[in-house]
Design goal:
By secondary structure, this protein is α+β, with helices and mostly antiparallel strands. It contains 20 helices and 7 strands. Among the domains are: about 110 residues, no CATH class; about 80 residues, no CATH class. The chain has a 5-stranded mixed β-sheet. It has a two-stranded antiparallel ribbon with strand order 6-7. It is globular, with a radius of gyration of 22 Å.
Length: about 375
């Protein structure tokens, strides 16, 4: 049994209710668990491997201990985030500011145990006209500090957590493949948690659609991690209205991506035999880790922009306006400042720790071969991007 097979076998034991085979138990040597731990850490899933190891009562070893420690840390992080989320929701309720919790804070209720769905932050959506009032209420009541306004959110920091306060559901630079026309109706779709409440919830179909759109945002810049596909698998086990999901995905043009994602999830979490493209997508995701890698980023960039030189000039040297305004929101109202902020960006790339990252991306761009770009092109086409 190879590392990937053991990794997914342990995930299925932890989350999917699968029983361990003797082959899997035999494969759980310290050497193999060390490799699984490294892979799981890249995808923020070491805690689930630790849960499976505890279920199997495997002999003690250093990698087994690290995985179980990751499970304990995930539980502690969940408690901290959940406590802060409840406080934030109470503040917004008292201020009568309509809000919608998003992503992991909602998804985790569908996992076997809520702590199993890790998050690095909290996500709450408010209406743009209420954004300033929400920031004032949260910073005043909870002592958070607010960062600069981005093109879709403001990040608040405090008490050891990050709160992404969204006023839009997806960044403008990803508009083409994001189903923005559907997401623009998100508040029309939402309904109060209870009569008179400022706490709103999305319909099952809209929440699923939002998750798919968010996956695409990450997928098309190099990868989105195994965890997002586990989310899909979990949600598909508890579909309240599959027909409504299907209709919304078709309307928003995201059905092809959703179907491809489900095929990968079935391969990983149900053990189905993959076709060649599903295996290619699997390799693409596994290589990238939770937040993409330079090789995937370069291959996708070259595929979308037509080669190494165009990617270098249009993405790394002269960033397109739609991307640049996401980094510098002032450009949304003052497009004429674009040349100035191109220079500001270059200076930032050479300072603030950006030089090493930029050099790594340029190195990946140089080393990325035509076959990698060709594979990326096929993957994007297969996934409808």
């Amino acid at each position: 049994m190879d590392t990937q097979s053991l990794f997914f076998g342990l995930l299925r034991i932890a989350v999917c209710g699968e029983s361990a085979t003797e082959q899997l138990k035999t494969a759980c040597t310290p050497e193999m668990l060390e490799k699984v731990y490294a892979l799981a850490t890249r995808h923020d899933l070491a805690h689930l491997v630790g849960q499976a190891i505890s279920k199997l009562q495997l002999p003690e070893s250093e990698p087994a201990a690290k995985c179980k420690q990751a499970a304990m840390q995930a539980f502690g992080r969940y408690m901290q985030l959940n406590f802060e989320l409840e406080r934030a929701c109470q503040v917004l309720e008292q201020a009568k500011i309509p809000f919608i919790p998003l992503k992991g804070s909602v998804l985790r209720k569908d996992y076997p145990e809520p702590w199993m769905r890790t998050s690095c932050d909290m996500d709450i959506l408010v209406k743009e006209e209420m954004l300033d009032a929400a920031v004032k209420a949260l910073t005043g009541a909870l002592g958070y500090t607010a960062g600069n306004k981005g093109d879709h959110d403001i990040v608040l920091r405090g008490n050891g957590v990050y709160l992404e306060l969204h006023y839009d559901t997806i960044q403008e630079r990803y508009e083409a493949g994001s189903g923005r026309s559907v997401l623009s109706r998100i508040w029309e779709d939402a309904s109060p948690l209870k009569e008179g409440s400022s706490h709103y919830v999305l319909s099952d179909a809209m929440f699923y659609f939002y998750h798919i759109a968010h996956m695409i945002k990450h997928f098309e810049v190099g990868g989105c991690g195994v965890r997002t596909f586990l989310d899909i698998w979990i949600m598909d086990q508890k579909a309240h209205d599959p027909a409504a999901r299907q209709a919304l995905l078709e309307e928003g043009g995201l059905l092809k991506f959703a179907q491809g994602a489900r095929q990968v999830a079935a391969y990983w979490f149900r053990g189905e035999t993959p076709d060649d493209m599903t295996r290619a997508v699997s390799d693409y995701i596994l290589r990238a880790g939770m937040y993409s890698d330079n090789k995937n980023r370069a291959a996708v960039g070259q595929a979308k922009m037509g080669g190494k030189l165009r990617y270098l000039l249009l993405r790394r040297v002269f960033m397109p306006y739609d991307y640049l305004k996401a980094e510098y929101p002032v450009l949304q109202k003052h497009k004429w400042l674009t040349p100035v902020y191109q220079v500001v960006r270059w200076i930032r790339m050479l300072t603030h720790g950006g030089l090493r990252r930029t050099a790594a991306e340029l190195k990946a761009n140089t080393r990325t071969e035509g076959d990698s770009t060709g594979t990326a092109t096929e993957i994007l086409k297969h996934m409808g991007i």
